From TrEMBL, chain A:
<dbReference type="InterPro" id="IPR010559">
    <property type="entry name" value="Sig_transdc_His_kin_internal"/>
</dbReference>
<feature type="transmembrane region" description="Helical">
    <location>
        <begin position="12"/>
        <end position="34"/>
    </location>
</feature>
<keyword id="KW-0472">Membrane</keyword>
<feature type="transmembrane region" description="Helical">
    <location>
        <begin position="46"/>
        <end position="63"/>
    </location>
</feature>
<keyword id="KW-1133">Transmembrane helix</keyword>
<feature type="transmembrane region" description="Helical">
    <location>
        <begin position="75"/>
        <end position="99"/>
    </location>
</feature>
<dbReference type="InterPro" id="IPR036890">
    <property type="entry name" value="HATPase_C_sf"/>
</dbReference>
<feature type="transmembrane region" description="Helical">
    <location>
        <begin position="119"/>
        <end position="137"/>
    </location>
</feature>
<dbReference type="GO" id="GO:0016301">
    <property type="term" value="F:kinase activity"/>
</dbReference>
Automatic annotation (TrEMBL), chain B:
<feature type="modified residue" description="4-aspartylphosphate">
    <location>
        <position position="55"/>
    </location>
</feature>
<dbReference type="InterPro" id="IPR046947">
    <property type="entry name" value="LytR-like"/>
</dbReference>
<dbReference type="GO" id="GO:0003677">
    <property type="term" value="F:DNA binding"/>
</dbReference>
<dbReference type="InterPro" id="IPR007492">
    <property type="entry name" value="LytTR_DNA-bd_dom"/>
</dbReference>
<protein>
    <submittedName>
        <fullName>LytTR family transcriptional regulator DNA-binding domain-containing protein</fullName>
    </submittedName>
</protein>
<dbReference type="InterPro" id="IPR001789">
    <property type="entry name" value="Sig_transdc_resp-reg_receiver"/>
</dbReference>
<dbReference type="Pfam" id="PF00072">
    <property type="entry name" value="Response_reg"/>
</dbReference>
<keyword id="KW-0597">Phosphoprotein</keyword>
<feature type="domain" description="Response regulatory">
    <location>
        <begin position="4"/>
        <end position="115"/>
    </location>
</feature>
Length: 351, 249
C-alpha cells in the first residue's frame, strides 16, 4: 500500500491546505479569546500546526500495520493509544521547546503556554484520531474500488466465456458426411473432389478461427454461409436451393460472428433432412433505423414428425444476443404449416 | 452364389460410393438403390433382398424405425456418420457398422462378414426377432412410433398419444386422429415412454397423465379414470399408487 497522501502531489497540496485552514482557525481562536499580540499568535499557530502536519504523515505507518481485518480490536486500540501518547507528547515537547527559545524573554507568553498545555494535549489526541480515521477510510475506499474493479473484470471474463460456448459448435456429422462425399467424388468426379476439399477447408478455417473476436461484417458471414450451403448442396443436390436478397449497403454492417450458421443448419436439419422434396432457403437482409434485419425462411414437409431436441441452436442465438446487446426481442421465430422463418435484428452502433 | 442387395441412403454421392465399392464384389447383385426409408421399406418387402446397406438418418423415418416395420429380415450393414448408434445396431444383429467416411478395404470386410452370415443363413429369423425385443430393454426414451397399416406408414409423435391398450401380442395406440395397432409389448411402452407423462394404471392400460379429467371410485376400493374425451379406463390395485404418485395427491 502506498501512502495515501504522498502517492500524488495533488493530495499533498490538499493536506497542506487543510492544515493551513486549521492554522487560521487556531490563530483566530487564540487571538479572540486571549490578549496576545497577533505576531506571537502567528508564530505559535505555525509552530504547532506545521509540526503536527509533518508528524501526521507518519501516522499512516501505525495504521498500515494495524489492519482491522487481521488483528484483534484490542491490540489495535492499544497500538494507537501508545502511538497517540508518544506522538502528541513529542509534538508538545518540541513545540514548547521552540516557542520557549523564540519567546524566552516574554514571561507572560511562557506562562500562557504552560497554562494551556493540557488543552494542547486534548487537541493533539483529537487531531491524531481524525488523521487515523482519515487513513482508515482511504484504506476502505481503496479496497472497495479494487473489489468493484475485480468484479467487473470477472463479469466480463464470464461473459466472454459464455459467449464462446454459445458460439455455434461445428456439427461433427456435417464434417464426416462431407468427407464421405469427398471420398465418393475422388472416385467418381475427381475434379469436383478438389473443389469440395477447398470449400470445406475455407469453411473450417473461418469457423474454427473465430476465437478471439465476437463480431464480424455481414459480408464475411455471408461468404461463410455460401460455402456451407455449397458443401451441403454437393451432398443434397436438388434437395437444397438457396435464394438471397441482400441490399448492398448492408454488407458492411456488423453482427456476432457465426450467428447465421446455426440458423441455416436448423433449416437444413429440419427442412432438407426430413423432406424428400426440394427445400428452398430464402434469405433477405435490409438495413433500417440503424438495425440490420435478416430474415431466413425455409419450407418443410408438414408431414414430418418433428423430433425433439430442436431449438437448442436458436436458444443459443437468443442467449448470445442477450449477452451482446442486453435485449430479448432480437430473435423472432415464425412457424406456419409448411414454412419456418427466423427473423434476426442486429442493432448497429451509432457512427 | 448371388447376394441380392439394395442400398438405402438419402445422399446420392454416398450411394454412388457404395456402388463403386460394390463393383469389386462379384458375389453381390445390386437390385436397386433408394433414397428414403419409405421407398426402402417398400422395396425390401417386395423384392426380399438378402442384404441391405442402410443409412440411419433419413427423411420420414430412420433406418432403425424402418427395420421395426419389416416383415422380412435381410442382413443389415449400417453406413452412417453417427457413431452413437453402433451398439444399438449390433444388438439389432447388424452384421457390420460402417462409419462414414470408410475405405474400400473396410467396406470389403463388411461385405465378407455379410457373405459369411448369408452362408449360415439357416439361423432362424426367430433369433433376430428375439434380439429386437432384447434391444428394446435399453433403448432411450421414445419420441415417435412408426406403424404400418397395410401399405401405409404412419409416424406418430409421442405427444399425440392419449392412451394405450393391450391387445394380445399387440398394443393399440389411441390418438386424437384415430387408433393404430403396433406389434410391441405393453412392457416395451411402459419402459420407453416418459414416466412423468405416462402411467401404467392397469395390466391393459397406459394412460397419458395430462389426458386424465378425473378419477372416480368405481366399486369398493376400485377406481376408474375418466379422460377428457369421456373414455373410462380401469385402474388396478397396483396402478392406483403409481397414479397417486405422479398426480401427487
Amino acid at each position: 500500500m502506498i501512502h495515501p497522501i504522498l502517492r500524488k502531489s495533488r493530495y499533498l497540496y490538499y493536506y497542506i491546505s487543510i492544515w493551513a485552514l486549521v492554522s487560521v482557525a487556531h490563530f483566530f481562536i487564540i487571538y479572540y479569546f486571549y490578549d496576545i499580540e497577533p505576531i506571537k499568535v502567528v508564530v505559535e499557530s505555525l509552530t504547532f500546526n506545521v509540526l503536527f502536519g509533518a508528524l501526521g504523515l507518519s501516522f499512516w505507518y501505525a495504521v498500515k500495520f494495524s489492519n482491522v481485518d487481521s488483528q484483534p480490536f484490542a491490540s489495535i486500540v492499544v497500538t494507537h493509544l501508545v502511538a497517540a501518547v508518544i506522538a502528541v507528547g513529542l509534538w508538545i515537547y518540541v513545540g514548547h521547546y521552540i516557542l520557549n527559545k523564540v519567546f524566552s524573554t516574554d514571561s507572560d507568553y511562557i506562562f500562557f503556554l504552560n497554562m494551556t498545555r493540557p488543552w494542547r494535549f486534548v487537541s493533539g489526541i483529537l487531531y491524531y484520531s481524525l488523521t487515523i480515521l482519515f487513513y482508515y477510510l482511504t484504506i476502505n475506499y481503496d479496497s472497495l474500488q479494487e473489489k468493484i474493479q475485480h468484479e467487473t473484470e470477472l463479469k466480463s471474463l464470464v461473459q466472454t466465456a459464455e459467449l464462446n460456448t454459445l458460439k455455434s459448435q461445428l456439427n461433427p456429422h456435417f464434417i464426416f458426411n462431407s468427407l464421405n462425399s469427398i471420398s465418393a467424388l475422388t472416385l467418381i468426379k475427381p475434379e469436383k473432389a478438389q473443389e469440395m476439399v477447398i470449400k470445406l477447408s475455407d469453411f473450417l478455417r473461418y469457423s474454427l478461427g473465430q476465437d478471439g473476436k465476437q463480431k464480424t461484417s455481414l459480408k464475411e458471414e455471408l461468404k461463410n454461409i455460401e460455402l456451407y450451403l455449397d458443401i451441403e448442396r454437393i451432398r443434397f443436390g436438388d434437395r437444397l436451393n438457396f435464394e438471397k436478397e441482400v441490399s448492398k449497403d448492408c454488407e458492411n454492417k456488423f453482427l456476432p460472428n457465426l450467428i447465421l450458421q446455426p440458423i441455416f443448419e436448423n433449416a437444413i436439419k429440419h427442412g432438407v433432412h426430413e423432406s424428400i422434396e426440394g427445400v428452398t432457403i430464402n434469405m433477405n437482409c435490409i438495413c433500417e433505423n440503424n438495425n440490420l434485419k435478416i430474415k431466413v425462411k425455409n419450407n418443410f414437409d408438414p408431414d414430418a414428425v418433428v423430433k425433439k431436441g430442436e431449438g437448442i441452436g436458436l436458444r443459443n442465438i437468443e442467449q448470445r444476443l442477450l449477452l451482446s446487446y442486453q435485449r430479448t426481442d432480437l430473435l423472432r421465430v415464425k412457424k406456419s404449416k409448411n414454412f419456418f422463418e427466423v427473423q434476426l435484428t442486429v442493432p448497429q452502433e451509432e457512427d | 452364389m448371388k447376394i441380392n442387395t439394395i442400398i438405402i441412403d438419402d445422399e446420392s454421392l454416398a450411394r454412388d460410393l457404395i456402388k463403386s465399392f460394390l463393383q469389386k464384389h462379384d458375389e453381390i447383385t445390386l437390385l436397386g438403390e433408394y433414397s428414403n426409408g419409405f421407398e426402402g421399406l417398400k422395396a425390401i418387402n417386395e423384392t426380399k433382398p438378402d442384404l441391405v446397406i442402410l443409412d440411419v438418418q433419413m427423411p420420414k423415418i430412420t433406418g432403425f424405425e424402418m427395420l421395426e416395420l419389416l416383415d422380412h429380415h435381410p442382413i443389415i450393414i449400417f453406413s452412417t456418420a453417427y457413431n452413437q448408434f453402433a451398439i444399438k445396431a449390433f444388438e439389432l444383429n447388424a452384421v457390420d457398422y460402417l462409419l462414414k467416411p470408410y475405405s474400400a478395404e473396410r467396406f470389403g470386410e463388411a461385405i465378407s462378414k455379410a457373405v459369411e452370415r448369408f452362408k449360415a443363413k439357416e439361423q432362424s429369423e426367430d433369433t433376430i426377432n428375439n434380439l429386437i425385443e432384447h434391444v428394446d430393454e435399453q433403448e432411450e426414451q421414445l419420441e415417435r412410433v412408426v406403424v404400418k397399416i397395410r401399405s401405409k406408414i404412419h409416424v406418430i409423435s409421442v405427444d399425440n398419444l392419449n392412451y394405450l391398450e393391450s391387445q394380445d401380442d399387440y398394443v393399440m395406440l389411441y390418438t386424437d386422429d384415430g387408433k393404430y395397432l403396433k406389434q410391441k409389448t405393453m412392457r416395451y411402452f411402459e419402459n420407453h415412454l416418459d414416466p412423468k407423462q405416462f402411467v401404467r394404471i392397469h395390466r391393459s392400460y397406459i394412460v397419458k397423465v395430462s389426458e386424465i379429467s378425473r378419477l372416480e371410485l368405481f366399486e369398493k376400493e376400485s377406481y376408474i379414470v375418466i379422460l377428457h374425451d369421456g373414455t373410462k379406463l380401469k385402474v388396478s390395485r397396483t396402478g392406483y399408487p403409481k397414479l397417486k404418485k405422479v398426480l401427487d395427491f
